[in-house]
Every structure is written in structure tokens, then in C-alpha cells.
Amino acid sequence: EDGGPQPEKHCGHGRGGMGEDVKRKEDQRFITGRGNYVDDIKKPGMLHCEIVRSPHAHARIENIDKSRALDVDGVVAVLTADDLREYDLATMPTLMADTQDVLVNDKVKFQSQEVAAVIATDRYTAKDGAQKVVVDYDVLEPVVDAEKSLEDDAPLIRDDIEDKTDNHCLDWETGDEEATAEAFEEADVTVKEDMLYQRLHPAPIETCGAVGDYDPGKDKLTVHMTSQAPHIHRTLFAQVSGIPEHKIRIVSPDVGGGFGNKVPIYPGYVVAAAASYVLEQPVKWVEERSENIQSTGFARDYDMTGELAATDDGEILAVRTDVLADHGAYNAVAQPSKFPAGFFNIFTGSYDIDTAYGSLTAAYTNTAPGGVAYRCSFRVTEAVYLIERMVKVLADELGMDPAEIRRKNFIQPEQFPYESTTGWNYDSGDYEAALDKALEMADYDHYREEQQRRIDEDANKLLGIGISSFTEIVGAGPGKTCDIAGVEMFDSAEIRVHPTGNATVRVGVQTQGQGHETTFAQIVAEELGMNVEDITVEHGDTDTDTDPYGLGTYGSRSTPVAGAAAAVASRKVREKAKAIAANELEAAEEDITWDRESGEFHVAGAPDRSITITEIAAGAYMNKPAGEDPGLEAVNYYDPPEMTYPFGSYIVIVEVDRETGEVEFEKFVAVDDCGNRINPMIIEGQIHGGLAQGIGTAMLEHVTFDDNGNVTGGDFMNYLLPTSMEIPNFETGHTVTPSPHHPIGAKGVGESPTVGSPPAIVNAVVDAMSHAGITHVEMPMTPDTVWEKLDEAGLAA
Ligand code: CDP
Fold it and tell me: What's the gap in Å between 470 CA and the centre of ligand 1?
């Protein structure tokens, strides 16, 4: 009756269940200034920590003189690696089992690396103290470019690794090299393009921070921290510090945006916790903006070569790619441990391509470590960019319409479940339906005519039309293939229905603004026939002491994994409620049926005899049937059988000014399919936000360095986030292709727009110039970059 996915027609019973535009419950506290973020936490006797950071990218530390800092009134302690070594905390493991200095042990490996920590009675005094720590550096030659770092004469960065003689980090490959080479030899047409997915930073509005609070009375360490994954962070804290796990409590309060930046563990967290342990007083550490951009997990930095082999009429026969990845000074990418290149091998995209080969080399450089999944499922963004850009390059080479070539190569609906040549098991899809809808919404044919008219009339503003028909992969596990530091990637939900008929829900994931307090309540409302107002999802204070263990929120895994757990836990509650309903309705349990529309239990054959869960909750506590345990609650730990594969088609129409190289958005259409939809209004918000981030990626953002290793794109003056001025009107649409294996047929959606939009935008700008032979423009497509291409093509006015 309710095992499988719920088709969309079930939506809208008026109780705030699946498919209803329920207003976000959490917004009451956010828009009235009552959010509770790490920096809002104030504890009696709380001290403040400021980190002393290296101005050099590569330097050996010869001496650290704390004395002048300790003389500052209010400075309580100055910690260096020597102090942490006593507690075995001078280094920490990264999520990829590399070893990173908490405070520099010997040699600085990137600018802004953590050298010392000053603890004082208030933040300003801590800052004054930090300026008085005198560090003697022996400055070494830095290398900030991955290609140069692999040259023979490059300075060695990781001399802390035994027998290491070069800056090589790792190699990885996927697919069949030989078969791919053959396909390329035999193909009618081959195309090749180099493209850099530049270094980005997730740049959440709230930077990272922590309040460590060791209570010697209870012998318990509580850490409030900006964490996207508090449970796994506690396990790692326990493993590294030796403090038993039940003596550590991590609380992730309201988090002001994560986007992957708050998945790794950073030195500041460890220092705040360690300092509170040593000083037996609470210690707060909160980063400034430039510290966040310059030292915490960056994203992307994949220098890719893409190649396609095809027939004359546009059938894609093979894809090949080679990547040079910059991992920074440590291997600290945040992705499932068996996937050194994340899910990059999904680079065959939405297309039925049976031959593929990919190889990757990663290098250490004197830059901050990272490679986090910035609103992305572990390198899917890079893979989607590669294939969607290459399809456009091929279309231009063949003189084919880019919509037509996509249609010709799409995996067809009847091919699902579809196993890709690189081993992914796509659950469901109807790519052509999404593309057709987008083409219609964009008025595609009209704009193609308009584009030609402008070329013919030698107009000052060229028109470009870009398409991206992306497939995402979200919802890691399953546990057998995906783990973080050995812990399998499942997730969890716990539901308790109280005697007066309302419910509290706890989940293993952590919200960072995505609206979980509303959407998880909607899942439970749908499954239990309750009103959404009667359900509280305890969020904004994810607490490892009380919440069920989960692997955290990133890679759009909340809905596919914890959302499934919430549905399954609800069904367990409903099963128990059935026995109580039978008791209350004085009928046999086998005669009780559940009606999703009304949200009631009925006695078969007697439609007037019905009862809701709210009405029978009391019975679980006050009038339980013989042989049943009291209470009405359930917990589910959900290990997904597969990931889910949301998809969409985006069409971007731009005007390119031939005089200035400026790009203006004329139209921006986004058609998404995330299976069954929980809250269309929240999805719309997710799409808008993600598209804005995609525009930032394509047009503005880049963490840059000079040759001395200085970060030249490390603050908001130089790392340009899009504002409302740069964001056009988005026209959104959707199709619904449920996931066949997800309990409510839902797929994730949060990152689709960030993943899918950059190639559509670049394809549009290239399309404005492709009649003059331009095949690629590097991101960010600033006016000067675009103007150079116009000039190269003889189009500059
Ligand atoms: O893991 P994260 O929450 O970042 O991503 P997600 O699972 O894609 O969900 C983002 C937001 O969209 C959440 O509030 C989801 O519940 C909501 N959503 C939805 O309403 N329907 C879907 N099919 C997928 C997500």
C-alpha cells in the first residue's frame, strides 16, 4: 500500500505533506534575528583565541618568541606546536589520511597557515597579543602552480613525508584506455579542448568557528562548532585526542551556510578545544573572512583536457580526459575515502557512451589544502563541466545544433536503470523531456533566428545560446562503497509521537539553511497523516549527545539518505499505530487499512469508522493494547541501496558586447528534475541560490596567487561574489521522474543548479563567438577575458 514511491498526484492533502509549499518554519527565528550561531554563544569566563598566521607560503620556522605577547594585559596563554605536542595534538589526520599540522611544527607550507594561537580575555586583546608574537622565518622558494610543482627542480614541499622526493600527490584512472584509444583512432571526428575549473572557495556567509568548553567536574568536553558533520567530527576528535567518545559532545548550532566548507576539521577547532582542556575555561575561536578564504577548504582547481570521438552525424563514440589536480599543501579533499578523485568518473554525463577513459594526477603546492565538495557531490561539478563543454565543442565542429546532438546521444528512458561504462548505476531519467521543456520555455528557435540576424547585421551586441543537460549523482552511500574515515555513509531519523498527538523528529544530518526543519516535518506529516504544524524537527542545535548518528549534510545527501530514513521511521511508527488504532476502533488489526489521502486508519468495509494518529497517540501511553509495549516512537538507520540521479536542462541566453567584452543575461531557463518534490517553494529557493553561485563561478570567482605564494584573491575585495546586481531573473520549470529505490521517490536537488549552470553559461558566451571559430573561454569570464577572445576572433569592435 505504501512501500513504493509516491507519485506526485498524492501531493497536497492540505496537511503540509509532500508537494505542498509550506512556509519555512525556521524563518521565524532567522528573520527576527533569533538564530543561534557559534559566534552568538557566550559562556561565563569564556576566553578568546586568535591565530597567528604565516605571511609566507613556504618557510622554515627558526624561532617563536612568545614573551612580548604574554606581556600584553589580558593575554592568558600563547600556544605553539611544542605545547600541543605534549598532548599529541601537534598534528591531525585529514579526511584523506594525510597528516596536517595543527600549528606549524617545522615548516610553513602555505600562506596564512596556523603558526601559533593566542588566548586572551577578549577578542581584541587576543588580536593585540597575536601581533606581538615574534616568529623568525627562513623563507624558502614557494611553488603555487601544480604544473610547475611537478617539474624536476621544483622545491620539495612535503619533506615531512618519509622518502618523499617530489611534489607528486596521487595518480588515479578509470575506464578502458586501450578501447578508448582504438575508438579515437577509428572515429570520423575527434575534438579536444583544455579547460581549467579554477580554484573557488565556498565562501559561506558565516565563517568557521568553535567554542571549546571542557568541564573538569564532569570530565566532559563540549565543542560548539560550525560543522556540517558533527557526529563524524566527534568520532575523529575521540580518535585523535584519546578522550573517550562519550566524554565529547559536539553541538552544531545554526550554521550560516556550509557549501562543503564546513566538512573538514580545521586547526582552529582543535586549538579551541585543546586550549579549553588545558586552561579549563571555555575558549572561542571565530575566523575573519580573509582567514576563511585563505586557509580553509577550497574547491575545484582541476586543469582538464577533454576529448570526444564521434561519427560524422554526431553519435558520440568515446570520451577521454586527463586532469592535473592541485591539492594544496596536504591531501585534505573531503570525499568518500575510496574515491581519490571523488565521483569525477561520472564524466560520461547524460549520454549513452560505452567507451571512456580518464586519468588524473594530483600535486602538492604551497597553497591551502582543500578540494572540498562545494555545493557538489565530490567532483561531479568538474565532470559535468567537462562533458557539457565538450558536447558544445563537438556540435560546433560538426556544425550541428547543440540541442540536436544532445538528443541524439541521451540515455533513453527505457534504458534505466542504466549502468555507465565507468560503473555508475543511474536510477531513472527522462533527459529529452527536460530539454524539450527548457527549449520551449526559452523560445529557442526565435533566439537562434535573432542570433543569426545580429551576425548578418554586424550588430554591436552578439547573442549566444548555451545549453547544459546535466546529470547529477547525490545521496552517498551506500555504505559498502562510501565511507568517511572508515564510517559507512548511512543516515538516520528518530520520531517520537507524544501523548497529546504531536511529534518530535531528530535526524542525523545538519541543516545549514536548506529548510530541513520544514521539509523533514513534511515527510513525516505525509507518512503519518499529521499536520505539519504538529511536528518539530529538532535542528539548529544538532547535538551528538541526543541526535541519532549520521554522516552529515553535503553532496545533497539529506533528502536521499536522511529523508529516506525519516520516511521509513514514520512507516514503523504507523505500523505500531495500526495496532493501537485497531484497539481504539474495536476491530481486528488485519481489518485496519491506512488511507493516505485522509491520513486516517479505517476499518475495512466501514468507512465511517476511522481515526488519525493524533487521535490515537494517547492510546499508546494510556490505553495500550495487550501485548504491546507503551510509547509511539521509532528510529531508522538507512543505508541507501544506490545513489539518486537528479538531472535537468538549463538554457542561458547572453548578449556579448563587442566593445567592452561585457556579458549580460538575456534569459536564464532552468528545468530541474529531482524526482518527487517535497516542497516546491523550497526547491525553487535552492535553485535560485545555486544558479547565483553558478554565475559567480562562471563570471567572477577565482582564488588567485602571485609567484611569491601570496593569495591575491583571498578577500571579498578580490574574490568577487555575485550580488543581486549580477543576478538575472530566473525562469524555472520542472519534470518529475521519481527515484525507483527511494522510499518517497525523491532525489536531492540542492546542488544541481551550481553543478549544471556554469557549462550552460560558458557555452552561451562561446556560442556568441563560435561562428568566428572560438571554441572555449576560461572561467571566470571577466570582461577582459571575453574581450581578448573577441579580439582573437576579429570580432572586437
Ligand atoms: O543535503 P541538502 O539538504 O543540502 O540537499 P537536498 O537533499 O537536495 O535538499 C535541499 C532542500 O530541498 C531540502 O530542504 C530538501 O528537503 C528540499 N527538497 C525537496 O523539497 N524535494 C526534493 N525532491 C529534494 C529536496
Answer: 18
Q: What is the pLDDT of residues 541-562, one digit of tens each?
A: 778 999 999 999 998 899 999 9
Q: What does CATH list as the number for 299-476+642-792? A: 3.30.365.10
* Pairwise CA distance, residues 327 & 362, whole Å: 6
Q: Which of 375, 406, 609, 677 is catalytic?
A: 375
Q: Using the 8-state DSSP alphabet, how is residue 564 labeled?
A: H
Is 29 annotated as catalytic?
Answer: no
Please return the burial class of 183, using the count of CB atoms within 10 Å of its CB with bins 0-12, 13-18 and 19+: buried
Q: State the architecture of 8-33+491-638 in CATH terms.
A: 2-Layer Sandwich (3.30)
Ligand 1 pocket, 18 CB below 6 A?
no
Instruction: With cut-offs at 50, 70 and 90, classify the pLDDT of residue 727.
Output: very high
Closest to 452 (Cα-Cα) out of 461, 438, 441, 463: 463
CATH 3.30.365.10-classified regions of the chain: 8-33+491-638, 299-476+642-792
C-alpha of residue 516 to centroid of ligand 1, in Å = 7
Instruction: Choose which residue among 683, 752, 755 to substitute to test ligand 1 binding: the one with the highest number of ligand atoms within 8 A of its C-beta.
Output: 683
What are the pLDDT digits (tens) for 433-464?
999 999 999 999 999 999 999 999 999 999 99
Distance in Å, CA 745 to ligand 1 centroid:
13
- Bridge pairing between strands 731-734 and 663-673: parallel
| Helix, strand, or coil (residue 605) | coil
Single-letter code of the amino acid located at 84:
L
Residue 471 Cα, ligand 1 centroid: separation in angstroms? 16
Rounded CA-CA distance 781/697 in Å is: 9
Candidate of 559, 687, 755 to mutate for ligand 1, largest count of ligand atoms within 8 Å of Cβ: 559
Q: CA-CA distance, 756 to 427, in Å (whole number)?
A: 19
Q: List every span in the chain annotated with CATH 3.90.1170.50.
A: 38-140+207-255+262-295
Residue with CA nearest ligand 1 atom 17: 683
792 carries an active-site annotation: no
CATH second-level architecture of 38-140+207-255+262-295? Alpha-Beta Complex (3.90)
Beta strand pairing call for 91-93 and 99-101: antiparallel
Which residue of 11, 472, 474, 678 sits with most ligand 1 atoms within 8 Å of its CB, as the best mutation to test the pocket? Answer: 678
ipTM for the predicted complex: 0.98
